[in-house]
Amino acid sequence: KAIEEARAPFERHQWIGAPLTAFEAPLGDTQPVPNPARPLDTVGQISWATPDTVAAACDAAAPWDADPATRAKILEKAADLYEENYGELFALLAREAGKSLLDAIAEVREAVDFLRYYAKRAEGEPPVGVFACISPWNFPLAIFTGQLSAALAAGNAVLAKPAEQTPLIAHRAAELLHEAGVPKTALQLLPGAGDVGAALTSNPKVGGVAFTGSTDTAQIIHKSMAKNLAPGAPFIAETGGLNAMIVDSTALPEQAIVAIVESAFQSAGQRCSALRCLYVQEDIAPHFIKMLTGAMDALQIGRPWEITTDVGPVIDAEAKAGIAAHVDAAEEEGRVIKTTPTPDSGHFVAPTLIKVGGIEDLEREIFGPVLHIATFKADKIDKVIDAINATGYGLTFGLQTRIDDRVQHVSTRIHAGNIYVNRNQIGAIVGSQPFGGEGLSGTGPKAGGPDYVNRFRRHEAQS
Ligand code: ADP
């Protein structure tokens, strides 16, 4: 039924989006929003916010003064509306973000979980005031909703800027939040690119920023906040990762292969939690690599809205070119172990396996379906952990082993926000397994955890 919903009624539907503000905003530049799997098709049209609209939205913003119980009820109502409109949300996730249906189902679920979880944490303590929420395209519904629902639960006014690649799903979600009863002064949507985000995060009316995206952009925003915003303005950042997994000779190979394929290639590798560098114990490596390349052969790459698709497109031509340049460089050095065929049209990138000496050979996070593999000797596992920690990131880490002491030893030594043992390195559960990293990967607290909403409240030191 979900597939029919996502497909049939929306096959030719076009969405229209624009700034959603507490005043009559003039229409800015209007542009088509492409479909990454079929770039000649459009998903709809978006009108961008201008710097003037951003300034006026900051002036019009007013913290949500409804009592906490009313705020909670309205956020719960928004969760109901997301659930009622799931078919349309799936269709937008597949068409605008290239998400496979399985990914889309999980994403709508996560967004609903965030709304209900943070609704329960609405309390009477004072909000920061006006919060800017800047979100990425790779979880255009879940992260967008998670940031703003925490900010709203605490009673803030939110100025939300979705990623330029995925404005239409954000627009639809904001409409549903307004329909549920969130006042327009408490939630305004400002579609645009980095310049709109920069205008927002340097406006002195903004009292705090929640950001998810690249580490580089986080550092730019942090600097701008220090210059333009009140001292002590909270900055909640979730950024990149350079995530590793260790597979030792006691691991169950079939289980490890499934976990690796899902962790590295689902969502076409466009997850900050995705596996980038796999370490396999030397003794089992030749056989293990054969199994892994066999599993890669079975991956289906294609249109995200087909149920049998494992790997959809990457988000745009620029992303594709960046990944291709990395793979070409490895190819020239003879390090590509395996690559797979892909469709000709659309922004598809072949799932690829590249040999490296270790994680230190990766200069940056490659945000696509590219997995790097290194081997290690049994007695050198601590060296591997040191190399992983030395990247400075600390988001996710995976371990496949049947040695109990090793689970203890490795997980206390590794710096990572989320550690996955004998399973895929994917996901979080709002409430019970919150998500977030350390070091270059983020500021904490973890999203979907008990402390998250507190960061959107005013504390003594700030007032
Ligand atoms: P990604 O690699 O996920 O595209 P970015 O960090 O470029 O990561 O983008 C994440 C979000 O940050 C997007 O909404 C983007 O428009 C926004 N952004 C980019 N540059 C800036 C900036 N200088 N100030 C504020 N927001 C920005």
From TrEMBL:
The active site is at E238, C272. It comes from the Bacteria. Residues 30-456 form the Aldehyde dehydrogenase domain. Oxidizes proline to glutamate for use as a carbon and nitrogen source. In the C-terminal section; belongs to the aldehyde dehydrogenase family. In the N-terminal section; belongs to the proline dehydrogenase family. This is Bifunctional protein PutA. It comes from Thalassococcus profundi.
